């Protein structure tokens, strides 16, 4: 069986020998570089010094022995591998190779060498002349500038510098000569695959050609074994291919039958604009054949017809695996949200949507939303129902746990007795809730102020900042007090009222030993009976009533025992403090009150004394007012006195009697000289009295 033949043709520097060599190694083919043969002949011709322009001088060619051994080329046993690359050789090789004699001789040598072996042969006329029946013909090409660049690199490696423009010019000249010569010019064989390597790497090109070789090398048995529909592939068939090259807007695939498939980016679907980062070499892609291209031979592919099924599969998988999918909200209607995912419409009823989202549903259109699928039914009109329940319940649970943790952390930091600042969060008739951070406490109405509060709303408002003391901590519960931070009424009272200061208050209770006076709300003091008045005879219990306002002085405030002692008498001077009376002493008195039939209260030395009716006159008094009036002053005699009891008893009568007696005694003394009778004497006395 003849061997497998690959013909590689192309202009200078397109990569023929490099690629051929590597493919030969890879696929175990013999590589024959025919250009090297023409170069070897050129080298020998130069060596021989023949006239290069004279074809008749090339007879030596038929006798030349050319061999390839270990990557080296030998001409007549001499290693010419390097020499044939000299500039001199390169400049003349086109000319030498244009002679029909030279060509025919070398072509027959080449054909002989390729007989019965698997060979990859590169040159200019391989596909057209040397191996016209080659199993695969490749015409490699590249832009002249790219080829010049590659050559320049080769030269730089060998420390040879050359102007790139000059190099390009030389290549163009050689191309022209090679393709315009009469004998076997460089042309593209009609059945060759043209590969432009301008933008291909060496590896790309190798892979591309390797695929072509493999496609053609495969035996019928192998094809059957692999169940490859080699002959039957047609438009609309579904095929799978392996990506061997990725460009921005096209991917190249090797299909099941080893043909080349190409897919342009717009036929991939999923709205991508570039294959980069989406598809990589080695990926398997399933697609539909949309066109079979003959020249060059490849198959155009598209994924678009498959996408619907693929997308539905994605949806079914998401449903089965209970996966979250990210959808787009396309419509908001009365019953729920319409979502789009992988090109399918999904409905999400409001009952399965987060409450906050339902509240702001009118702003949702166009937004993305993560959901779970809870019903997936395929059909002409697939039925797809989504839900957010799992998502929002999980979120709520997580938030709850976070809150609980935060509360626990905060409460662990709080101790009974701590003073904290918080905000009034809720007000009930008998208590308020005070929020700190994650924790709140209870402030009962009785703990807000020391005084009684009728309406809690009068003293606190929602949002008020308040300082409180923790008075009890039980688990997560905190009992708070604001009043614990305020001075007690007793403390406030003691601050404002120092000892001795005068205070007024209403009598709230009468006790056997005194009066309870309310001085301020919650502040009561005792006015002991001994402190009511200096007057020992003052029986205030008889006339002081509950509710009477009494003024008194603060004697003592005991904040701890909550005791206040008051003294009313301290507000006054004790009238008896600095006076003294002696019995028998005559004092000036002033009538301050007439007590009918009983006597008169008089003021003497600033204190009150009493003159009984019997002591008002030496004669019987029928009506006191006939003799005295309030405001009258006169002399009276102290007849009894007890300062402790504020007791002072006086007599006018005794002074009058004294006076009568003295007059009488005078009379007795005068009588020895005068003739006044007792009757005269009394008449005179009475006349005096009338005058008054
Ligand atoms: N994509 C590519 N394909 C092939 N060769 C490339 C590529 N990119 C760079 N090169 C380099 O280009 C240079 C020219 O390659 P090569 O000598 O194989 O070309 P050629 O077609 O055999 O040229 P000539 O006909 O003049 O012998 C080599 O150094 C090779 O490594
Ligand atoms: N089959 C061939 C091979 C080569 N030549 C000529 C044309 C080239 O200018 C020259 C050197 O070839 P290279 O080594 O550059 O590939 O040989 C030809 O005519 N036919």
UniProtKB/TrEMBL annotation:
GO terms for molecular function: ATP binding; CMP kinase activity; dCMP kinase activity; mRNA binding; structural constituent of ribosome. ATP binds at residues 10-18. Its main location: cytoplasm. Residues 3-214 form the Guanylate kinase-like domain. One of its GO terms (cellular component) is ribosome. It catalyses: CMP + ATP = CDP + ADP; dCMP + ATP = dCDP + ADP. Residues 236-304, 322-389, 417-483, 500-569, 584-653 form the S1 motif domain. Transmembrane segments: none annotated. One of its GO terms (biological process) is pyrimidine nucleotide metabolic process. It comes from the Bacteria. Residues 150-177 form a coiled coil. It is found in: Cytoplasm. Keywords: ATP-binding, Coiled coil, Cytoplasm, Kinase, Nucleotide-binding, Ribonucleoprotein, Ribosomal protein, Transferase. InterPro entries: AAA+_ATPase, Cytidylate_kin, Cytidylate_kinase_dom, Guanylate_kin-like_dom, NA-bd_OB-fold, P-loop_NTPase, Ribos_protein_bS1-like, Ribosomal_protein_S1-like. It holds the Pfam family S1. Its EC number is 2.7.4.25. Belongs to the bacterial ribosomal protein bS1 family. Belongs to the cytidylate kinase family. Type 1 subfamily. This is Cytidylate kinase. It comes from Acholeplasma brassicae. The lineage of its organism: Bacteria, Bacillati, Mycoplasmatota, Mollicutes, Acholeplasmatales. The gene is rpsA.
